[in-house]
Amino acid sequence: MYITNTLVYTENQTFTPLTIRTDGDIITALLDSDEPLEQGEAVIDGTGCYCIPGLTDIHFHGCDGYDFCDDSLEACEAIASFELAQGVTSICPATMTLPSDTLDNICKTAALFHKKQTEGSLTTTGADLIGIHMEGPFINKNKKGAQNETYIQMPNSALIRHWCVSSEGLVKLVSLAPELPGALSCIRECKDEVAFSIAHTQADYHTAKLALAAGANHITHLYNAMPPFHHRDSGVIGAAYDTGNCYTELICDGVHISAPVVRTTFEVCQNRVILISDSMRATGKPDGSYTLGGLDVTVTGNHAILSDGTLAGSVTTLTDCMKTAVSMGIPLETAVAAATINPCRSIGMDSLYGSISLGKKAHLVLLQQDTLALKKVIKGSIIL
To answer: What predicted TM-score, i.e. pTM, was given to this entire model?
Structure first.
């Protein structure tokens, strides 16, 4: 199959007139736009469109009425199908702070779904499940946000390794508060098995730097559920700014972070920013009452809040977060990287996902150049 007459987002983060050739679900050639095409091949005309890699969300909880922690194949299928339709072609959904046995079962269900997806035995087509983000239970109760304090526990390397086995290797990212007893040793012990992210924390600058030196390389939803950036104690945020190999997540839904802060973060962190949706089950559904991690959430417009007013994730897709970043003044080329290759690199999945390159997955999205409206989603031979 060929995708023609489009400006292709290349690995050097520029848009170039190219023709893409795919075979099954793999990109097999990137051709000059004037090269002749082989007869008999299907052709998708991308006139007036940008062609970007399929997006990857490494931090979201649910959508379309379902939550990853519902612990069912039905939920996994519905979530994957919804995400694919939005241009998110690979996903690493996040858990919540729940009992250890519940998290273990979620890991096992995810592994079963991944197996069925790989075998092609599902009745629906959805985004590839490429990982699990364990957001909790190793968090600080004073910065728990929308997490359930009842099930918070101290970092435990044996438990992380157990979840890695239960998920059959799908656990890619573990969020924790580095000031908790055992956190730094846990990072040192398991840093070669999973990526670690600083999250839901009261850590100061020094403690955050110790965690990053120990092997953490990621900050979960920067600015949210952590001490604010202060000119005398810059905290986790300052540590993230100062550490060149540290990825920083941003919830760019227009609610969690203001436009000036979004622009500042991209300026300071540049190619280390990862756009995430942090979406919950109400995404794609009407206003009303929902749950997140067993807690009641009220959704009105683009706000999802607990009864005490705490933000409880977002109700915005990653594609819309990317567009919001652009509307805030972030160049499209930069915003695309933050929603594609950067998240894939952060969890070690960039050899197959995240960019338009020979041998990588043929996961592509066509956006109208004038409006950035989603025109087509291409996942191998599946075209939406």
So the answer is: 0.96
